[in-house]
Specification:
mainly alpha; two-stranded antiparallel ribbon; two-stranded parallel ribbon; 7 helices
Amino acid sequence: MKRAMDILGAIGGILFFSPLILFLSLVVKLTSKGAGIIKLPRVGKNGRIFNLYKIRSLKNNGEVTDIGKFLRRTFLDELPQFINVLKGEMSLVGPRPEIPSIVEKYNDMQRERLSIKPGLTGLWQISPYRDRPILEHLEYDFFYMKNQSLGLDCEIILKTIRFCLTRMIRKQKLRDGT
């Protein structure tokens, strides 16, 4: 059932967001050197390395591009990951996919995160600790792993949508001075 939900959600996400993904990746390509969509190595289930898709938000020197700030703030840079979900490398909900160099330093407890597919969203992503390193807050991943269900996945997806919309609105109000 979870895989069916992932497939339907990924297809829906790709169909709904593909014009926006194409537009944003074109803007990135036209305003800075490099590709609009990039592939980044990440560690998935059982330690398998896969290429995570993102709209590029950094310049080659590591600085955030002008549009990259917007993309990161609104999480729009992560929309291409619906492709990873469709390919079966990720799930809609699960632990955050990690960089291989960080996974190399995992202890046995941290390696347990690799027993399920990483997710496009998860409990940590909607937590008040989202801006801190995930390794400081593994309890969110372990809670999810112990209690995962379609109901919990739906709840996390709805909270993610609310979180993203609220954050975008709040940031817009701050820019407008209201």
